[in-house]
Write a structure and sequence with these properties.
EC 5.4.2.8; single chain; A-D-PHexomutase_a/b/a-I/II/III; about 450 residues; 6-stranded mixed sheet; metal-binding; alpha/beta; Alpha-D-Glucose-1,6-Bisphosphate, Chain A, domain 3; Phosphomannomutase; A-D-PHexomutase_C_sf
Length: about 450
């Protein structure tokens, strides 16, 4: 058996195939998954990577060996798998490495109702069970049956966003050779949308660019397509299509914080006084707008397990992250890039202004985006930064890394990576000059290692 410590991450399983993650690991995980949950029935789906089909099949074999019946949904996005686990109320397993390069693959696991499974909520137990050796299953072997859930997924999404009266729109979409190439055509059928497709061919070798739209370089083709075609909007999805990024009609990248504010506004109009979740890195424009609209903003750590836990605790209607993950109470508190895209299309198509004007009131500050620095001793570097800036700060907190706010409205967050020797810096200011000055000063301190 492989060294599972290398691939069992905080929120999922992910590793190089087959050196770190192979069919034996998938088969054992399927068996342990069923034993842990006592599940009589589960559902699986997989992305377009070459290794995804054999891994999903091996997982199903392991699950069936423990007596569980497996619904194999086949090709799908991660949010399609969440739909399946939610609507069928059974545990699920998605085979994908999301935006990682082609040599990787992985598993995202959830309980019935799409409740997430991470290290503290079952993933560590599954790993321990595999390492200890999984007992033989009961006498009855489960079945594996293919079931196409794409149409049901689309119908459910279309019940959550009213698109009946939108004006005709031209939409450029970059699927990055990922699962958006399957789900976008199915979801957009019948809508007054002229789609300009980029890289819709399902190809897990990612021949055009990485399927990771948080990196600006991977949005250049979409920006160019929007400008050359005169499209009203551009949409980009990551490899498993659970994240969505937006480009406006000028070809400018729209911050996920701005999309969070827009969708929060729409959800609060539908449910006045509702709770909206946002992580520590989302723009301060989000809690400001939520408060102005009569809602309740709740701030959390970065990561889907924290967002979903707070949504469950507070009954929040919506949650958003800086990374392009958007979570919906009416989608089992799971994240769906497609549902976020439909909200943006509904907002744009229900009025006549271009997207940049529509979003003007939601983008209030200047933000750096996430900047990574390779640092051997992250804790020491963070101590240096806190010592330098805390004396002049209006507020210092450690909810997730180090967040320091100043009286002029600027703030920064500095967090260590969970998996790499990196420090992640996000800075926001009331204007470009203030943000740039603070950003450059902090980066110089981090990278030089000098104290104040």
């Amino acid at each position: 058996m492989r060294d599972l410590s290398r691939i069992f991450k905080a929120y999922d399983v992910r590793g190089v195939v087959p050196a770190e993650f192979d069919a034996d690991v998938a088969r054992a995980t399927g068996a342990a998954f069923v034993r842990l949950l006592g599940a009589p029935r589960i559902v699986t789906a997989h992305d377009m990577r070459e290794s995804s089909v054999p891994l999903a099949e091996a997982f199903a074999e392991g699950a069936a060996s423990q007596g569980a019946d497996v619904i194999a949904a086949g090709l799908g996005s991660t949010d399609l798998l969440y739909f399946a686990a939610g609507s069928l109320n059974i545990p699920g397993a998605m085979f994908t490495a999301s935006h990682n390069p082609a040599k990787y693959n992985g598993m995202k696991l959830c309980r019935a109702g799409a409740a997430p499974i991470g290290q503290e909520t079952g993933l560590a137990d599954i790993r321990a069970m595999i390492e200890a050796g999984i007992p033989a299953g009961p006498g009855r072997r489960g079945t594996v049956a293919r079931r196409d859930l794409l149409d049901s997924y689309v119908r459910h999404l279309r019940t959550l966003v009213d698109l009946a009266q939108i004006r005709p729109l031209t939409v450029a979409v970059d699927a990055g050779n990922g699962m958006g190439g399957l789900t976008v055509p199915a979801t957009f059928t019948g809508l007054p949308l002229t789609v300009i497709p980029l890289y819709f061919e399902l190809d897990g070798s990612f021949p055009n660019h990485e399927a990771n739209p948080i990196e600006p370089a991977n949005l250049r083709d979409l920006q160019a397509a929007v400008r050359s075609s005169g499209a009203d909007i551009g949409l980009a999805f990551d490899g498993d299509a659970d994240r969505c990024f937006v480009v406006d009609e000028r070809g400018e990248i729209v911050s996920p914080s701005t999309i969070t504010a827009l969708v929060a506004d729409r959800e609060l109009a539908r449910e006045p006084g509702g709770t909206i979740i946002h992580n520590v890195i989302v723009s301060r424009a989000v809690p400001e707008l939520v408060t102005e609209r009569g809602g309740v903003p709740v701030r959390t750590r970065v990561g889907h397990s924290f967002i979903k836990a707070e949504m469950a605790r507070t009954g929040a209607v919506f949650g958003g992250e800086h990374s392009g993950h958007f979570y919906f109470r009416d989608f089992w508190r799971a994240d769906s890039g497609m549902l976020a895209a439909l909200h943006v299309l509904a907002a744009l198509g229900s009025q006549d202004r271009p997207l940049s004007e529509l979003l003007g009131g939601y983008a209030r500050y200047s933000a750096s985006g996430e900047i990574n620095s390779e640092i051997a001793d992250a804790a020491a570097a963070m101590n240096v930064i806190e010592k330098a800036y805390a004396p002049d700060a209006a507020d210092v907190d450690h909810l997730d890394g180090l967040t320091i706010s100043f009286s002029d409205g600027s703030w920064f967050n500095l967090r260590p990576s969970n998996t790499e020797p990196l420090l992640r810096l996000n800075v926001e200011g009331p204007d470009d000059a203030t943000m740039h000055r603070l950003r450059d000063e902090i980066l110089a301190r981090i990278r030089s290692g000098r104290e104040a």
